[in-house]
Here is the input.
Amino acid sequence: MIDEFRQTPVGDEWALKWAIGNALDTVTTPKHLEVLLELALDRRHGIGRQRIVDRLARISAQPRVVDALLRLMEDDDVVFSAMTGLRRRLGPAAAADRIRPLSIRPSAYERLHGNS
Here is the structure.
């Protein structure tokens, strides 16, 4: 499934890629941490990574998972999954301190289309 995720293009096959990511969310274990980090941080996989990012937060409490989630909060394709994961890993209060600054950042839609 990991190879299938890597090989599936994001373009017209974005829903298939997301579904494969969803399957990976279901079947991966802590032994898959390295590959999940690799896939989650690789922007070429677009929104297909959303469920993989969700899985990262549930699979490990290692500091590098938290570091990855913090980096992924700057990625519009997975920002909400990263915020949810950060809340799971840090707790609501600590995560809110990290998430709050994002509320003033323009959304991807606003950056592409203006504020109207």
About this structure: The mean pLDDT is 89. The two ends are 42 Å apart (CA to CA). The chain is about 65% helix and 0% strand. The longest helix spans residues 14-27.
